[in-house]
Amino acid sequence: MDRPYSDVADVSSSTDLEFGSLANSLVLLLEAAKSELEHDQEAAKTSLAVASSILLSEIERRSGATGSRMGGLAGWQIARVRSFIDRNLHRTIHANDLSAVARRSTAHFSRSFKQAFGEPPHAYIVRRRLEVACHLMLTSSASLSEIALSVGFSDQAHLSKLFRHAFGQSPAYWRRERETLWRR
C-alpha cells in the first residue's frame, strides 16, 4: 500500500480539532434542549435530533467500524473521504473527486460509500453541510446567506429549503429560538 504517512497525521490532527468544535456544538444544543423542554417540546426535539446526528457522525468517524463491512471502504479511505468533505464543504464536491481521494473508480466508490456510510455521498454531504450550518448559527453572528455560502449551498433559499425539510422549521426561526434561550 503506497499511502503517505503525512495523510494519516493530517487526518488525525484535523479530527482532534473538529472534535473540540463538535463537542462545543453538542453542549450548546443539549443546553438549548434542556431549556426548551418545559416551554417548547418541538424545539427541544429538534435540538436533540441535531445533537444526536452530530454525535452519531463523530462516533462513526472515530470508530471506523463501518468500513469493515465486506465491499465497503477501508478505514483509511473513510478517514480521507470524511476529511476531504469537511475541508471542502464550501465548494461543489463531485463523486469523481471523492472516488479519487479513496482511490476507487467512481461507480465502485459510490456503492462502497453507501455501504460504509449507510447513505449515498450526496445525502451525506448535505447532512454535513446542515450540521456545520447549525454549528455556525449557534456560534457566529454571520448572516444566514453568509453561512449558506460558507457551507456550500448555492444561496440562503437553498439552505432554507433543505433545513426546513430536515428539521421542520426555517433556519431563521431555529436560530432565533436558540438566541432567545441564551439571553435568558
Task: Report on the architecture of this protein.
With 184 residues, this protein is an all-alpha fold. The protein has one domain: Arc Repressor Mutant, subunit A, CATH 1.10.10.60. 77% of the residues lie in helices and 0% in strands. The chain is built from 9 helices and no strands. The chain has helices at 5-39, 41-63, 75-87, 95-102, 106-117, 121-139, 144-150, 156-167, 171-183. α1 (5-39) packs across α3 (75-87). The chain starts with a helix and ends with a helix.
Overall, the morphology is elongated
Structural class: mainly alpha
**Biggest beta sheet summary:** none
How widely separated are the two ends?
Answer: 56 Å
CATH architecture: Orthogonal Bundle
* pLDDT < 50 runs, ≥5 residues: 1-13, 65-69
Average pLDDT number: 80
Rg, Cα atoms, Å: 17 Å
Number of helices: 9
Indicate the CATH class: Mainly Alpha
CATH superfamily: Homeodomain-like
Spell out the blueprint of helices and strands.
Layout: H1 5-39, H2 41-63, H3 75-87, H4 95-102, H5 106-117, H6 121-139, H7 144-150, H8 156-167, H9 171-183
